[in-house]
Protein 1
Amino acid sequence: MAVDDKIKWDKKYSENSDLLSPREPSMAVVKNYKECSGNRALDLACGAGRNSLFLEENGFEVDAVDISKLALDTLNGRSKYNKINTILADLDEFDLGEERYDFIVKCNFLDRDLIKRAKKALKIGGIMVVETYIEDEENEKMNSNSNFLLKEDELLDIFKSGFEILEYKTFWNESFEKYRMKKASIVVKRLA
Ligand SMILES: C[S@@+](CC[C@H](N)C(=O)[O-])C[C@H]1O[C@@H](n2cnc3c(N)ncnc32)[C@H](O)[C@@H]1O
């Protein structure tokens, strides 16, 4: 397990409990979850699970993976239908399998290798939402590590073959977030 990430995130959540407050799900998830035919979902780096909880309420069985026990305990306390399987794991190493999920969501967490593995874990015809921060000179958190920021249009490039792009947009992040940062969001369907 990436011990540094685990310590960092558990500390961050214990010192800023507002980060675990209930939050609205991603608009891209809300708008597009009905596009997929099955009900098996994966929420990568789920945190307190705003997207997992929405998917559970809408009939999905969700594997929700995160490295923070504090976040997963919070999510377990909010799950109403016993349809969320929380998994404490390091996503650098976690095996996502192949053609396993109908819907995959990865929000506010950038790991380019993980996107590659998530593409394979999606069933043919499955839907994936990737949404995270991008480079912009007006970002409030200027010292963000650029490894954790997408380049403008990078998501379009990542999904240019084998996927149909259902939606792509950039926007200024949700008001509940601490810093004003630009984000990109893509919704794709796996074709082959
Ligand atoms: C900014 S939060 C995003 C939470 C959620 N996806 C959302 O959009 O509300 C990033 C999450 O990534 C998790 N994380 C960081 N490194 C990780 C790793 N190596 N493996 C699994 N989860 C990790 C953190 O614990 C944290 O909950």
Note: The domain at 3-15+25-190 is CATH 3.40.50.150 (Rossmann fold).
Protein 2
Amino acid sequence: MNIHTYEKAWLAIAMVLIVGFIATITYGAVGPGIAMIDDDGGTIDPDTINDDERFSDPGVTHVSGNEYNVSVVAQAWSYTPGEITVPANSTVNFHVTSRDVTHSFTVVGTNVNTMVVPGQVSQMTVEFDEPGEYGILCNEYCGEYHHTMEGKLNVVPEDEFDLTEVDTEAPDEAQLGNETTINATVSNGMNYDLETTATLEIGDQTVEQDVTVPGHGSEAVAFEVDTADLGTGDHDWTVTVDGYEDGDTLTVTSATEGGDGDA
Ligand SMILES: [Cu+2]
């Protein structure tokens, strides 16, 4: 059979186009890591999210090395936590679920964009190389204030990142001459030990205590304060650990006023 040269040329071009179209569609479907929501992340009862260990305390947890888990709960019309901070050069596994209706979890300027369906846990893994700030928003219309549903993702330089927290507990009042205790709890969200120093500043006194906090744990630090050194009056105090601080005011009353009131 004799095929005309132009006919052959057009057949060849048509074949190239067909193969090209199939290739671009295949790349678009699997190349950029786009996936349909499925039950990989597991299911969850939306009514008992607060009791579920994955979401009872949503936020950032250190897995190991430069890998972190971030759990997020979406609800009309906010995300919990509203602000997420992770270090640069990290691999982040997001787990997101909804408390009420269908939302989305979209990190603007990245390819993080998933539907968030009540009863399902959406899961994505993303690498963040450079520090930066990203907006988070909801792409699924979810009610009257849908347009206000937003969050923030901060990718900070590695040396500015940690998961240290400090909480304190102390009496508001003490009687002059008595000892009182200011208790601090230092928690460490990383999975290795944190060796650091807790510093109490009260009046013109500074007391330091070295503390080693186990990975994913917390450690109590007790500061004994002698009120005789402070004198009566209000004394502001702070406990500082690695730039994090918590504090309050201690009122020292004279032995005759206040106190038990049975003078
Ligand atoms: Cu929404």
Note: Residues 1-34 form one domain.
